[in-house]
Amino acid sequence: MSVFFYFCIMTVTNIKKPIVLTVLFFLPVLFLLFLYPSKHNYEPLDIVKENIPELKEFKTFNGNPIALEDRLSVVGFFGETPMEDTTLALNLKELIYDKFFGFKRFQVLILLPLSAEAQARDLQKDLNAFAPLDYWTFAFGSEAAVKQAYTNFKIAKPLDDALASSDVFVVDRERNQRGRLDDRNETEIETNSTIYGLPSYDVLEVSVLKNKMSDDMRILFTEYRQKRKGNFNSTARRAQDLKQ
User: Is the pLDDT of residue 16 over 90?
Assistant: First the structure.
C-alpha cells in the first residue's frame, strides 16, 4: 500500500511540475498581450504653436549653421554663464538625451549668447567625459537673437537677466512646437478644474522630465513611426481624449 501511495504522490508531483512551469511561462506572455493594445491606444502629442522659425542667426563652435526642419529637436536656453548651473544640462542629458539619442534625426540644441562660448566649451567637455554627445549641439548668436528665438516659442515664463531658462521646448520635424494643451490630471478633470497646458518642460523638475517629457517624447517618436507605416490618424488629439 505504501508503495502505491508513493507512486501516486510521485505521479502527481511529476504532473504538477510541467503545469507550474507552463503557467509561469505563459502568465507573463498573457500579461504582455493585455498591455500590447494599450501601448498603441494613445493620443498624439499636441501642437501648441505652429511654424517655429528656423534659427538662422545661430552658429556652432565651428561656425556651422543649425536647423530645425526635418529633425526632432529639444531646444534649451542656458544663458550667459551655463557653468554656474550645470544641473540644467545634467538633468537634460541623463533623463532625456541618454534615452533618445539613438533615434533617427533626434537632436538637442542649446542656444547661447556669444559671450557664453568659453563656458559652453567647458560644459561640453564635462558632458562628453564618458561618451561624446554626437546629437547635442551648442549654438551661439547675439543677445537679440537669443531673445527673439525664445519668444518665437509659446512660453510659460520669460528669460532671466542672464538670458537663461530652465524650460526646454520640443519641436517636431515640421517645426511645430509640441506639448500638452491640457495637462490636468484625472482628479482635476473629474472636478472640472480650469484647463492649463504644458508648452515646455522644466528641466529642474525631475518628476516633469521622468513622468511627462519622457512619455511625451516616446509618443512623438511613435507618431512618426506610425506615419512611416501609414497608420497615423492626424485628427486625433490628446485634449479631445481628456475632455471626454
Answer: no
- What does the pLDDT read at residue 239? 42
DSSP per residue, 41-88? --PPPEEEE--PPP-TT-B-TTS-B---TTSEEEEEEB-S-GGGGTHH
Strands (DSSP E) along 80-180, which ranges?
Answer: 106-113, 136-141, 167-171, 177-179
Best CA proximity match to 173, nearest among 69, 46, 74, 100: 69
- The whole-number pLDDT of residue 224 equals 85
- Most distant CA pair in the chain, distance: 97
Q: Is the pTM of this model over 0.85?
A: no
Given a contact cutoff of 8 angstroms between Cβ atoms, the answer to whether 72 and 224 are in contact is yes
Q: How far apart are the first and last CA of the chain?
A: 69
Distances in Å between the Cα of 244 and the Cα atoms of 42, 151, 198, 240 are: 14, 33, 19, 6
Residue 36 reports pLDDT greater than 50:
no
Predicted confidence (pLDDT) per residue in 175-214, tens digit: 999 999 999 999 999 999 999 999 999 999 999 999 999 9
Q: Are 140 and 58 in contact (CB under 8 A)?
A: yes
SS (H, E, C) 146-158: HHHHHHCCCCCCC
